[in-house]
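Example 3.2
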Amino acid sequence: MIKAGQLSKGMFILFKDDPYLVAEREFVNPGKGSAFVRVKLKNVKTGQVMRETIKSQEQVEDIIVENRDAQYLYEDGEAYHFMDSETFEQFTIPITGLEDRKSYMKEGEVYQIVDWEGKPLDIVLPFKMVFEVTRAEDAVKGDTVSGTTKLVAIETGAEIKVPIFIKEGDKILVNTESGEYVERVN
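Structure, written as tokens:
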């Protein structure tokens, strides 16, 4: 058990008998009254997101999670299929609640899996990843307004807004949390 004031983004807690990921945290100390914490919690089982306000002195139950490496094999519409990097045992993680990961997961890559009580809860993607552009329209000559962007498709099928100089076959660095273009990679 920890005090709500000690919560931080990325922690896992047991709230209303379900495991939740703390997606956002804001500490508020008003002039009158006691301090409190506003948190955005994501239910790891269902993917449902809710906002809660908790007094900073209230106790919340943090849960101990373990991370392990696993190779992403494929997705079948209902679950992601992985292979444990140490035991070579195959396992699945239901897509429900983790739909946003699909846009940035490449088959054959190794990702961190968050386990709680022997059950996988979450897939941790690197903060930034390199992807190849598979579809991009050509820039129009003379279209030089600063900040002009276009949509391109990357190898996972996701669409990213990029500057107009990016061409098909280029490799780009993408922020996996925001889905934004970072830079072109040589």
